[in-house]
């Protein structure tokens, strides 16, 4: 029997305050200080194990060792996630629900999404040519809300757009906030669940008939592992698990604009519009820029790993941002370099801005392909199908605020279609 090693530990009672102060870099700073990818600390009033790195990601996604039940913080459920959605499930129940999500991601549906995304960019480009300045982050939110609803089979009236856009943005901008801002996020979730819940009811009554293979259709009629229809509320949570994150791609579009402005030499390399170049650029945007900082799970049963003891029930977090910036996995990780992927290969556990592992067995983001395709269409428009000027603005972004967004939200001036 091998001996048990004691896990490096961050001394002190509770480190929640430092985590709020240091944001995306908290885990990385502590890991460096302790010289260990695995350490123990106290956060939000409980003992927590912190993991970072590819090997550690492989451990975190071992479903014999970790479960998600009871892992997502309440304040994240009240805003971003909702209750009893796919993110909180384990085992058979998770597989059945996740298969429903992945049934939306077939090649025909993704092709349709790309065509719809290009259509939405065409429409925005026409509008922008008539305007002096445009705010890329805000404009992308509206573009993506229209796209999300069109693709998901959610009817959206023109006069509802501003209101729904504002509410959905709150869902992903407020999970890590406090006080009034967080309260607004909770209100927004109640409103959005009521809106989509009402539509689910109409579909079930036959008053609204979405196309097959859309999220509205799939979740209105999805049956769980016991053969039961989802409640209206849970069906609404799952449709929102499609619509909300598509709108959240606005953050990546703002960072894509940021990268194009900051790296004109990389922007030039995209002029042939080759798929591989677009792909490498957006992968590098997802690797470098901060977005989803980390995620949490709980130890399923006592086990030992590399001689460290993991006790049943212990909250364990995996550092997504830190793994994407790990110098053992990436050469010069702080440098924006899309060409790195010619030599540095992507595995299910090293590039994890949207989680790692397998789509069905694990909680890896169901919308990673959607994100990549929408980002590539958007990059092609920004780099190759339009010209713009960049007025003076503060393009810096915080590594403390979660989620991080460029301060100026990326302002473009004198947008023109490229012939
Ligand atoms: C899960 C990030 C876009 C749908 C996740 C997870 C992360 C993530 C970190 C959890 C992974 C884990 O815990 O292992 C992001 C980011 C996005 C994005 C940064 C960029 C905007 C999307 C899109 C969709 C989507 C566009 C849908 C079209 C989902 C779903 C889950 C999920 C359904 C839950 C999967 C499960 O629990 O099995 N995402 N995501 N996401 N994402 Fe995304
Ligand atoms: C989405 O699912 O809407 C896309 C990503 C949104 C990112 C929001 C960032 C805040 C998440 C904090 C989560 C901490 C979990 C323990």
UniProtKB/TrEMBL annotation:
One of its GO terms (molecular function) is monooxygenase activity. It comes from the Bacteria. The keyword Transmembrane does not apply. InterPro entries: Cyt_P450 (IPR001128), Cyt_P450_E_grp-I (IPR002401), Cyt_P450_sf (IPR036396). Heme binds at residue 365. GO terms for biological process: sterol metabolic process. The keyword Protein transport does not apply. Its cofactor is heme. Keywords: Heme, Iron, Metal-binding, Monooxygenase, Oxidoreductase. CDD domains: CYP152. Belongs to the cytochrome P450 family. This is Fatty-acid peroxygenase. It comes from Sporosarcina newyorkensis. The lineage of its organism: Bacteria, Bacillati, Bacillota, Bacilli, Bacillales.
